[in-house]
Every structure is written in C-alpha cells, then in structure tokens.
C-alpha cells in the first residue's frame, strides 16, 4: 500500500465534532489527525486510561496542542477504510469476522468503563488491515456521551454494503439481518451466540488469542515486574489463515511445529526489505553478527552485532536492548538498555535506524 491521504469531516452521534481530519499511510503505519473545535471538552479520565493501557482494535491516541488549536493524532497498523474494503466481494467467513470484531469492541469498551457511543461508527472511518483482517476503531475522548443509535445504524450500513462472493449462498446475510431486527437494540451477547452457531471458528479465533495491553513503561525493574504481575485486560488478534510446516532448532533438539503453533508465532515486518520474520523462539536475538543472531540485519552498519532480543512469554512479547550503540526505539521512544519492555501488535520497532513492524 503506497502513500494515501484523505481529508474531510467526522461525525459523532450525528453531530459534527471537528472541522477537519487527515488520514494517511506512512512507514507502514496508519495515521489519522483530527482537529477539534473549541466546543469539545476532552475527558481527562479517558486520556489517562489510554496513556497506560491499550485496547486492541482502538487506534492509539495522543493530544497535540499547537497555536492553531487542539488536535488528536491516532496511529496504528496500516489499513484501508471499511468502506473501501466493502467495495470488494466478501466471503461468508470474513463477514462474520467483521461482525464479531464489532461485538468484541463493544464488550471490551464496556468492560473497561468506556462508552461505545464515543466510537466513530462510520464505515469511512473504521479501518481494516488487508493482511490480518483486523479492524481499528477511533475513540473520541469527550466528556459528552450519547447512545447506541449510531452503533445499530453502523451495523445496518455494513450489512447493506456487503457484496457477497459470486456463487456463494448469500442467505446467511438475510438470516443475520432478520435476527438483528428481532433484538431490542444492540445485544452483544445474543449477537455473539448467533455468530458462534453460524461460524464457531470466528468467535474462537477472536476470543482465544489474547495479549496483555497495558502499555506500562518504567526504568525501575521493581515497579515494572510488580505492574506486570497484576491482572491485565485481555484483547484479541486475528490470524491470517496461513499454515505451513517447518522445523525450529532448539537447544534440546529439533521440534516440529504444528499449524496452530505456527499461526501463533509473532511476525516482524522489516520495512526496508518487506521481509516477514517469524519469531520462532522464546528468546529471539536480532543483530548483524551471523551465528549469534537468530535474524541477521544485513546492509546496515548502524545496527549492533547483538542489538536486541524479542522475548515471548505465552502470548505476550517484550523487547530488550542489549546495550546497543545506537539504541532501540518503540514508536519513536527510546527504551532503557537491558530492561524488558512490552511490545504490541502494530508497534514500530527501530533498531538504530532499521524499522520493523510487529504483528502478533
């Protein structure tokens, strides 16, 4: 996907919330900049929440105060608008992936005490990654709340925008539409039960692949480990459906990975070469010294011989800088050497000036 930039006006609960927005793809990241009107008041509680925790599926938000006014900058994995995706035919399985992600987002917001009415429920401003099929939503952290009317209307617009794949039985759309019409508003639990009956794999995929999403960072090890020993909000990731067989060399011998194990392996996308690097070990070293590194960064003298390690613990990932000369960065922020820092799906990792994107 090349450089794409769009501009326009956003709406929340049927009202204009700002004069302008800009969205673009830059360095494999989706960036949406939203300029607020002077009437809008930021909910400080919500911004504090997002400063320390991240909910999978919400674009990360930062407040920018400049002379021209206040704006919010959103960022996350690259994607196209759902509007653009729905111009292409949609298979039955992918249709339910979209619907379950809407349900899942509603449930996670409610679980964390956030109002679903602050989401921009608009197919022009919900984004979907064409590789992982994961959707990204915009949460507007305003004090004023609304109701679920726009969410119900959003689901209806998605359904009526779907173009079924030719020759595929499309009666599932009619069944789903009639089911929704029988509900009293948006009932996430009943909708999820319906989707499970239609396609159990969709719900299982979204619900069973969880990672902690706190975003907590500190240079004090005691505080770091005390924080991560606590309960974390569980969020989800979609698989890309790929399944191959390969052998991984471990210290105790050669292990044959089954399809499920490979599907759960994180991937580093090297921006400069477009390589997809599977994180096959619990401790995966990156550097330029062949033989020591599990992945050797060629053609870059700024990267150290043993630069950093990606560490897997169950379904979470951390990165540790190995006292490299030119440091390691997460989303532009330098991390302390030798201290494990958690990384999340869509994060930009820079080893010196070599950029990678993490896909969990």
Number of helices: 9
Work out the radius of gyration: 21 Å
What does the largest sheet look like?
6 strands, antiparallel
Residue share in helix: 25-40%
Percent strand = 25-35%
Question: What order do the strands of the largest sheet run in, or round the barrel if closed?
Answer: 16-15-25-24-21-22
Described by the principal axes of the CA atoms, the overall outline is globular
How would you summarize this macromolecular structure in one to three sentences?
The chain has 360 residues and is of the alpha+beta class.
Highlighted features:
360 residues, alpha+beta, six-stranded antiparallel sheet, five-stranded antiparallel sheet
Helix-strand layout with pairing:
Blueprint: E1 5-8, E2 11-12, E3 15-16, E4 18-26, E5 29-36, H1 44-52, E6 60-66, E7 69-77, E8 80-81, H2 82-85, H3 92-111, E9 127-128, E10 135-136, H4 149-161, H5 171-181, H6 188-198, H7 200-208, E11 210-212, H8 221-228, E12 234-236, E13 247-250, E14 253-256, H9 259-263, E15 267-270, E16 275-278, E17 283-287, E18 295-296, E19 308-313, E20 316-321, E21 328-330, E22 333-334, E23 341-343, E24 348-351, E25 354-359
Parallel strand pairs: 17-18
Antiparallel strand pairs: 1-4, 2-3, 4-5, 5-7, 6-7, 8-9, 9-10, 11-12, 13-14, 15-16, 15-25, 17-19, 19-20, 20-23, 21-22, 21-24, 24-25
